[in-house]
Amino acid sequence: MNRFSWRSGEAKRLNGDPEHLTAEDIETVLATQVVPDPPEDFPQFWTEVATELEATPMDLELVPVEVESAPPDVSTYIWTATSLGGRRIAGPVAWPENTGGPRPQWVYGHGYGSRNGCGWNFAPARKGFITLGLDARGYGRSRLDGDPSVPGWVLHGIESPKDYILRGAVADTIRAVQVARTLEGADPTRTVLKGGSFSGGLAVLAAPWISNLAYVAVSVPTFGAYSLRRTLVERGSGKEVNDYLDRVGPARAETILQSLRYFDAVNAAPYVTAPISVGLGVIDAVVPGETVAAIYHALGSRDKELLHYPCSHSTHPLTGAWRAWEEHILERAARHVGL
Questions:
Q1: pTM metric for this prediction
Q2: 228: domain range?
């Protein structure tokens, strides 16, 4: 597993009231780095996933739907396509009308606990983006009988890289981008990939294997720095993994930890070269800010920025500061695609 280099010994999660963070608290979190430690065949593993997906016919279907909250100049659809392993996946599309030329795309996902998948996202559509959401396999419109659910989704197949459900979910993210790029009027050179938490981690893992991304925006991306998650995480998918590791015994735990090296966003980060914004919450018990900073520092992109907010995955009023993040990334995305 990767090693953290910012302090010795076991990492300890930052506690306290977000309203009383000190400059030292913030700097400590933002400075967190770990040394990427991918398996030797890491790029080969993911290249094979991308190749298998490319050989899988998309069989895209689009069905118009009525959404009361949709702006009058935005059409709404549900898309369905075939992903890795022959899985049918789906999600919403908000399509700006009367665009007058090829349009950029905004591809987004959902959180780990969002059992119903993606909600409708009209802000990018109003800006001029074909806006496509992905319900990862097992969620919402992509759910089939027998699929694992939350809690427990993140443990499905965890002991084998080829069987792990995250392998399929990353492929689903790549396929969603491919779907968006094939839609009528889409300009495939102007694609934005956006994710938060669960879908943020998927975006980091998927981005290296998607060509010509114009911009990536990830807030509190999960699946990063398992060496830190092991001691810092207190809730969410990371706690499910930690509790499972504690139950199975040392030998099986080591097998799982080796498998997770293929799905560590820190190990994927050096392969991300698109312009990217990363947002973290300094205090976060689900996706600790330290793990997000570790992803940021490992990114291979020459055009990257790290924005921080007092807290995330929280009911604290200061989570309202994230509204500035949404405004910032929409404006930055628009600049990168020429809107």
A1: 0.94
A2: 3-337
